[in-house]
Amino acid sequence: MPVKLTVTGAAAVAHAMRQINPDVVAAYPITPQTPIVEYFASFVSDGIVDTVLVPVESEHSAMSALIGAAAAGARTMTATAANGLALMAEIVYIAASYRLPIVMPVANRALSGPINIHCDHSDAMLVRDSGWIQFFTENHQEAYDFTIMATKIAEKENVLLPVMVNLDGFITSHGVESFEMLDDEVVREFVGTWKPKYSLLDVEHPVTYGPLDLFDYYFEHHRQQEEAMKNAYKELPGVFEEFAKISGRKYDFLDLYKTEDAEHIMIVLNSTASTAKYVVDELREEGKKVGLVKPQVFTPFPKKEIQQVLNGRKSVVVLDRAMSFGKEAPLYSLIKSSLYEIASKPSLGSYIYGLGGRDVTPEMLRQAFEDALKGNLIADEQRYLGLRE
Amino acid sequence: MVPSIRDLVGYVENNDWAFTQGHRLCPGCNAPMVANWATLTAKSLGYHPVVGLATGCLEVSSTIYPYTAWNVPYIHNAFENVAATISGAEAAYRSLMNRKKINNDKIKFIAIGGDGGTYDIGLQALSGAIERGHDFVYILYDNEGYMNTGNQRSGSTPPGADSTTEPVGKVLPGKLQLKKSIVDIIAGHEGVYAATAVTSEPWDFMRKMQAALEFPGPAFISILAPCVRFWRIPDDYGVEVTKLAVETKYWPLWEYNMGIYKVTKKPKTFKPVKEYVLKLGRYSKLMKRSDANEILEELQHYVDAKWDRLLALEEISKDKPIRKKI
Ligand SMILES: Cc1ncc(C[n+]2csc(CCOP(=O)(O)OP(=O)(O)O)c2C)c(N)n1
Ligand code: SF4
């Protein structure tokens, strides 16, 4: 029977890792990710799991070691945040190009500089083109559920891509909240055992990982990564379906909240969606036709789903918790370009919020909605919520 | 046992090389000898080598897709992380053996890196992997510079040698600093086997390779392996030069095992280091400078002092390991 646990998000993720029971986990601390690997290390120390833990000397080595371990046929996981992710960025790309199904929760935190330990999504956006599948999660339940689903999608034979599960630093990682934990056996059966086709330890069938791939093949290999991403897009609904069977929770590319008849839609990632849902409720009570779209899958970007839900709306406001200096904000630019192809385009607004952990209040989100309701949106203007001018 | 001449003939006849033909290293390069001897020793002892390589000449020349010169499992990850990569593979091996998902107690992990990937950018990952006690052998083929990117200085480049990032010029005499003593740095991890070797002494290398493979933890061998291109020596001269390196104290042969130092070759007489230097074209610009003798004298003093120190370390550490287990 599933149990309700009231714990931090870090503990929820660590429990998912415990139930997945990877062969190898690499651990390196960075706030606010640290408790994830700490909880996991205590599971190892207490003999609750028999995973081999590699307490590396840096995130760069964490990802490097996992590449070695995954190429050797092990099921592997680590977790990181911000500067840790930046330090491993070089190897994050390599993991994807070697088609290794590594799973990595990221407790989103602002990238330095200046140094700041609090939540934003600049870390995840740094590696958005690295070839990893990227999930974004609103709360403990989603962080837990998507970590389990990550293993499943990563290891599909026609996918074989690493997966990043983003959860908001401190807000989700350190906040205490209830979530429903599945039975160990149910998770174990869901993820099954990992039997890779190629392994460094299969000495009878030696393979070469990571050759020099010059102009005559590199291009084709990148095309194959793109195909793998397309396959991930095709396979994900099946994974959501299967997960619904064991959990009763049915996920999709997009979490839609009161969008059916909405004229004005807000799009936001992760925990801010909870506050946004509250604001949607308030505005609905006032008779305003508003709704919320929360992408849960960011890569592969669910463009078709976005187009379907936004076609014919009056306006759309996109909230980004990261900047793309000198260019449009990352989520906004993707949404905007998706709309190019639809028949009836809504008016658009871009809002930056919550950088470096700046508090996000209902009033701020309301302000973005009100701009939309008043028809006061300029697609080419980047606006800021909660910024002292 | 180290392979006998008969074993070696057998390997050649069966064409049973871990590192096979078809690589594109320069003629006369000493790096492929290192790759061959290391894997050959492992195979002749009945082990199944799994090899990791750092970015560098050996790597880019041996795995040009869709070809590979490697006939054993092989992984290249990046420039600075071969030790971390192999430590992950080794962790996977322990885990999968423990979980009975595989059954092969003959696998041995060998990481190979150049001096740039070892002395400099990869030192952190190497230090971390050794400190964690992973069971692997790290082979450093030391050509005293970044050769793959075209003759830049590394932490191993000796003073006065011409390189493109510290060229011998009108004002500066090339590299000013002495090289790092990498084997001492590795020995400083204590729970480790570490040794030096040269391409002119294959049996010494293979004996050390055997010790490294059988050592129940991290092991490290630094082997002087000239680059004929950037050392400015004839294609057939690499081995001659390393012989001279030993005969001039430039490259003493020694090993370290859990605290115990041992000098493995003690020539009765030594030649002056200048004799070695004069053979290398990469010093010819230096020799034209007025301060050449000063730099050579400093180098002579350094190699003398290092030699004396090694003998003293051997003496005081005799039968006194500082660690009993990894
Ligand atoms: C992070 C990073 N920086 C720089 C390089 C460029 N690079 C590739 S190989 C190399 C030098 C390799 O030198 P060494 O390790 O001594 O091996 P060798 O080429 O001499 O065999 C450099 C600088 C790289 N691949 N990655
Ligand atoms: S450049 Fe030097 S190290 Fe590189 S392959 Fe040629 S001889 Fe060997």
List keywords for this structure.
heterodimer, A: 389 residues, alpha/beta, six-stranded mixed β-sheet, four-stranded mixed β-sheet, 12 helices, 16 strands, globular, B: 326 residues, eight-stranded mixed β-sheet, 8 strands, binds thiamine diphosphate, binds iron/sulfur cluster
Instruction: Identify the bound ligands.
Output: thiamine diphosphate, iron/sulfur cluster
| Helix/strand class of chain B | alpha/beta
What is the residue-averaged pLDDT of chain B? 96
Biggest sheet of chain A: strands, sense, closure?
6 strands, mixed
Could you tell me the radius of gyration of chain A in angstroms? 21 Å
What assembly state would you assign to the polypeptide chains in this entry? heterodimer
- Give the strand order, joined by hyphens, for the main sheet of chain B: 2-1-3-4-6-5-7-8
Strand content of chain A: 15-25%
Q: What sequence of helices (H) and strands (E) makes up the elements of chain A?
A: EHEHEHEHEHEHEEHEHEEHEEHEHEHE
- What is the beta-strand fraction of chain B? 5-15%
Main interface: chain pair and counts: A-B, 45 and 47 residues
Number of helices of chain A: 12
Which class best fits the helix and strand makeup of chain A? alpha/beta
